UniProtKB/TrEMBL annotation:
Membrane-crossing segments per the record: 96-115, 136-155, 161-185, 223-243, 255-275, 329-354, 374-392, 413-432, 438-459, 471-494, 506-526
Gene Ontology terms for molecular function: transmembrane transporter activity
Predominant cellular place of this UniProt entry's protein: membrane
Identification of the protein by name: Major facilitator superfamily (MFS) profile domain-containing protein
Transmembrane helix as UniProt keyword: yes
Organism: Kwoniella newhampshirensis
Matches recorded under Pfam families: MFS_1
SUPFAM superfamilies: MFS general substrate transporter
Length: 607
């Protein structure tokens, strides 16, 4: 076989065409016995893209029949998929390379949360420089977080249509520009508008970076990668006030914005130059165009399309889904709505602290701006401890798996239950030790349980949502993100009035009681989650509870697996979540084994 042809087909040079043909894989959630009818716009797009590609010379006798489903005709084109050991498949990249990409993505993701709250250390200076009230200056945080909530509704569909890299290129440079605009602002309107748009454009890594992790790491490898990566968006809000405080104190408040701009610019250049495309549909579409061009160059006129384009929604439909389905889930699904409220409350409390800490440590205890930023170290220690402890949840998750089956989604919640108990403990601790004569270290230590709880709650809620709403996970997570950012935007606005009216002790106590009321929530979902999923029209995962799972016989498990797989195979493609559903819909191929993410019920070997 011609060497160039082998590269185009995505097969290692040592694999013969016959062995490759025998190793053709099919996706159990998108079964293909024949290519089926095609929409004309997809076919025209594929053919026109191929004709515009550069000519590739391959001897006709050397080019074997492509090892893909289909016949290569207009009605039944070859459906291009990853082949075993295909090096264009991100799952097959080396561990060192994937860790390097993961690290770079994590550092880039840390920047927008850093920018969101490093601003808090400049509020006093902004108040004086712009001649505005403290409440209006605090609104700079709220505008940024509002943008955080709105941006993902746009960047997620763009990621599906054009790929992860295009979504990043379309957003992150604009984040740099609006951050620069903040540094150059000389009136309140310009300051608030640039903060709003910086948040909207800076939110794309928070949406796409997690999906990129899912693109590269299989379900059995993803836990460690996700655990390490999850520190980035959580440490940003902790590092922001620390760095911003000392920079404001030594260099002036505008240098906080300049440093953020420099940081974001470096990440923009590094990510564009180094991070490759990881989104499977985009990679396969490029491969299909290359194969189409090679075929036409030899006069074979075979038709190739990516397997994801067999039945495809229009771009308008994709954007419509991205804008409407999150709200459908938020208001019709009890699991999504309740967990969204709980997560939003915890998130709002975190951002309330960014305006409460200056009151507690600077106004009451007389600390400088730089010293006030150090008060967030307790929160940072809690987040790091959470990152260390969180993998222990995987032990529980594996133990909940029986007879070779992945555990039900409720097995994700024990760590959330622990976090739910720790959160009010930390908040009560902080509330009643925040004022002198209690030593300053005591309230800072009290923030450790809350930081630990914050990470445990959020990672558990995210995993539980993905497992419960496998096909609609992206929309469910987007719904939670929108509500979360609404709370994060509003809570800082009333912190000054709350602490001014109730005092340090009772203001903190009120916040602690809010979290205390929500403690039963994860326990209730642990007990009744399976029942709620049975009633849901959007939760396709197996509705078996932990107690029922323990009583199942092997024969019942096999029957249920067959029934679930039959339901999935007969479900119309139009009902499927778009490909940007991320981890829940992606799959790893390792030596002919198909491993499904998400609920784990669709596991087939020997495909």
């Amino acid at each position: 076989m011609n060497e160039h042809a082998k590269i185009l087909l995505g097969t290692p040079l040592s694999i013969s065409s016959s062995s490759t043909m025998a190793a053709v894989e099919q996706d159990p959630l998108r079964p293909v016995t024949s290519a089926g009818p095609l929409r004309s716009d997809i076919l025209d797009s594929s053919l026109s893209s191929a004709r515009s590609s550069s000519s590739i010379t391959i001897a006709a006798d050397d080019l074997p029949r492509p090892p893909y489903p289909g016949k290569g005709t207009i009605d039944e084109p070859y459906l291009v998929d990853f082949l075993p050991n295909d090096q264009t498949n991100p799952y097959n990249w080396s561990n060192m390379y994937r860790w390097g990409i993961t690290g770079l993505i994590g550092v880039a993701t840390l920047c927008p949360p850093f920018a969101s709250v490093s601003y808090s250390s400049t509020i006093g200076e902004v108040t004086q420089a712009f001649g505005i009230s403290r409440e209006l200056a605090i609104a700079g945080i709220s505008f940024f977080i509002t943008g955080f909530g709105l941006g993902p509704l746009i960047w997620a569909p763009i990621s599906e249509i054009w790929g992860r890299n295009i979504a990043f290129i379309a957003s992150y440079p604009a984040f740099c520009i609006f951050t620069l605009g903040t540094a150059l602002s000389h009136n309140t309107v310009a300051l608030m508008v640039t903060r709003l748009f910086a948040g909207a454009f800076g939110s794309s890594p928070l949406t796409n970076a997690g999906a990129q992790i899912g693109d590269m790491w299989g379900v059995h490898e993803r836990a460690v990668a996700t655990s390490v990566f999850s520190l980035a968006p959580f440490l940003g809000p902790v590092l922001g006030p620390i760095v911003g405080g000392y920079v404001t104190e030594r260099c002036g408040y505008r240098w906080v914005y300049w440093i953020t701009f420099i940081y974001a610019s470096v990440m923009t250049v590094a990510t564009i130059l180094i991070v490759p495309e990881t989104y499977a549909p985009t990679i396969l579409r490029k491969k299909a165009r290359q194969l189409q061009a090679a075929s036409e160059a030899e006069g074979r006129n075979e038709v190739f399309i990516a397997k994801y384009d067999r039945i495809k929604k229009t771009k308008v439909e994709i954007i419509k889904i991205g804008l409407t389905r999150p709200f459908q889930l938020l208001f019709t699904e009890l699991i999504v709505g309740c967990l969204a409220i709980y997560g939003a409350l915890i998130y709002g409390i975190l951002y309330l602290f960014f305006t409460a800490f200056p009151i507690v440590f600077q106004e009451v205890r007389g600390w400088t701006v730089g010293e006030g930023g150090l008060a967030f170290l307790g929160m940072g220690v809690g987040l790091i401890l959470g990152n260390i402890i969180n993998p222990l949840g995987n032990i529980w998750y594996r133990r909940a798996s029986t007879n070779g089956r992945t555990a039900p989604p409720e097995a994700r919640l024990p760590m959330c239950c622990i976090g739910a108990v720790l959160a009010p403990i930390g908040l009560f601790w902080f509330a009643w030790t925040s004022a002198p004569p209690v030593h300053w270290i005591v309230p800072i230590v009290g923030c450790i349980p809350f930081g630990l709880a914050f990470l445990l709650i959020f990672t558990s809620i995210t995993n539980y949502t993905i497992d419960s709403y496998s096909l609609y996970a992206a929309s469910a997570l987007a719904a939670q993100a929108v509500l979360r950012c609404m709370f994060g935007a509003v809570f800082p606005l009333f912190a000054s009035q709350l602490y001014g009216t109730l005092g340090l002790h009772w203001a903190g106590t009120l916040i602690a009681f809010l979290s205390l009321v929500c403690v039963p929530m994860p326990f209730l979902f642990y007990k009744y989650g399976a029942f709620l999923r049975r009633k849901s029209r959007y939760a396709p995962s197996s509705p078996v509870s932990l107690e029922e799972r323990e009583k199942e016989t092997p024969e019942q498990i096999v029957d249920e697996q067959k029934d679930e797989l039959r339901k999935v195979k007969t479900r119309p493609d139009e009902a499927l979540e778009p490909e940007w559903a991320g981890d829940a819909g992606e799959h790893a191929r390792e030596g002919g084994e198909v491993i499904r993410g998400g609920n784990g019920r669709d596991l087939e070997k020997g495909i």
